[in-house]
Design goal:
Layout (H helix, E strand, L loop, with lengths): L16 H7 L18 H6 L5 H11 L2 H20 L4 H10 L8 H10 L6 H5 L5 H13 L4 H8 L10 H12 L7 H10 L3 H17 L7 H22 L1
Helix pairs in contact: 4-5, 4-10, 5-9, 5-10, 8-9, 9-10, 10-12, 11-12, 12-13
Bound molecules: fe (ii) ion (2 copies).
């Protein structure tokens, strides 16, 4: 059930065209994402289901351990910061950041059952490691529990673990925030990835997916093919947008 409570959103989002122009000065953008998807029309905004941050927080408090909740809040914060930097919709980034791990502690049976009910296409890696489905199932919870209908937000939740070729800049931002939020560690490699995440969106997704792959290769874990597809796509996008930027 959605509890009635105050929203943190005060209407001063970056959707306002004037505000976008000020922040989205091309001189501030070192890597320009798809221009078609980083704008947010007033019509779309008015169609969004009202979002209540406090009701999500209350739900998380009951369903997620405190340590994970801290991670979630750091992801929310980093997603907001990156969205500002890349001229994306900040409210959407905040929503996806806060709701990305809703299903993190669902058990494997529950994850598989919800995925099947949703008629998701499952491959052998999903079946062997249902925990990977927490991203897809998290989007179902966001829709069913909190009434989120915005496909941009739902996709960013779905894509936060494995990424997806062709994913939107908003999905890229949440993917990066999940992997690189400050609680993930303080190694030189992570520091460099964080710096790249503030400079070049696609290059950061490319290098972060390689970082994840290296970690997985060092463990006896199955690797989901989408992790590799995401890496190849982001690499191509980084090269293409890098070239376009230099012209
Ligand atoms: Fe997750
Ligand atoms: Fe997470």
């Amino acid at each position: 059930m959605i509890r009635q409570s105050e929203s943190i959103w005060d209407g001063s989002s970056t959707n306002d065209a004037t505000h976008l122009q000020v922040i989205c000065d091309p001189r501030n953008s070192l890597s320009v994402p798809h221009p078609s998807t980083n704008q947010f029309s007033a019509k779309e905004h008015s169609a969004l289901t009202p979002y209540r941050r406090q009701s999500v927080l209350s739900w998380l408090n009951e369903n997620v351990p405190g340590k994970r909740l801290k991670h979630i809040l750091r992801v929310e914060e980093m997603a907001i910061a990156l969205a500002r930097l890349y001229c994306l919709d900040v409210e959407r980034a905040a929503q996806a950041g806060l709701m990305h791990d809703l299903a993190k502690f669902f058990n494997p049976k529950q994850l598989l059952q919800m995925a099947k009910e949703e008629r998701l296409e499952l491959d052998s890696v999903d079946v062997a490691n249902p925990h990977l489905l927490h991203a897809e199932v998290g989007a179902i919870v966001a829709r069913e529990e909190f009434g989120i209908q915005d496909q941009h937000v739902l996709d960013a939740i779905r894509n936060h673990t494995l990424g997806r070729p062709g994913m939107s800049p908003l999905s890229c931002v949440v993917y990066l925030a999940d992997s690189l939020e400050p609680g993930r560690g303080d190694t030189p490699e992570l520091a460099e990835l964080r710096q790249t995440s503030r400079q070049d969106l696609y290059r950061a997704v490319w290098l972060t997916s390689e970082y994840t792959l290296k970690f997985l290769l060092a463990t006896p874990n199955l690797i989901h093919p989408r992790t590799i597809l995401t890496r190849n796509w982001a690499m191509q996008m980084a090269i293409q947008t890098g070239k376009a930027y230099k012209q």
